[in-house]
Amino acid sequence: MIRPAALALSVAVLLVVAGHAQQNNISADASAVRAAVTNYCEAYYTGDAQRMEQTLHPRYSKHMIHGDIPVREKTGAQMLQEIRKNGPADMPAAKKTEQVSVLDIAGTIASAKMVTPGWTDYMTLVKVNGEWKILSVVQRIDD
After folding, report:
1. pLDDT digits (tens, 9 = 90+) for 93-114
2. CA-wise closest residue to 40 among 142, 141, 143, 139
3. What structural domains and CATH numbers belong to the chain?
4. What are phi and psi of 3, to 5 degrees?
5. Given Cys at both, which of 60, 71, 84, 87 links 47, Cβ 3.0 to 4.6 Å?
6. Which of 123, 55, 46, 49 is nearest to 79 (CA)?
7. Cα–Cα distance for residue pair 79/55, rounded to 1 Å
């Protein structure tokens, strides 16, 4: 027969171990989300359509907001075509930077924010077959 104190101790140990395992999964997911967003941005900077394609969900959609210009949209296919056509971004190397923040992760969905010298992206990602893919982007372009 198990004593109440031993049972309580066993349950406490299991909860601590489970909590650490969950924290490790969240940390690994946060790193993977950050990597997907960084690869997306660096693919744009370098004009690497293949690298960008690896970050995009098949249903990718981007909405761009720029001052008084009506909201514009792009699909993943349009993004990739634009990268292939235009090549590396025409901007000074000093402006090819990004700050990525993982805002939240809930199971197989995540949200992230990326700030660059010229725009801010809010992104929704989904985990597909163990890989984080960018599903949607809302971009505010700075003037």
Report:
1. 989 999 999 999 999 999 999 9
2. 139
3. 4-141 (3.10.450.50)
4. -75, 150
5. 87
6. 49
7. 12
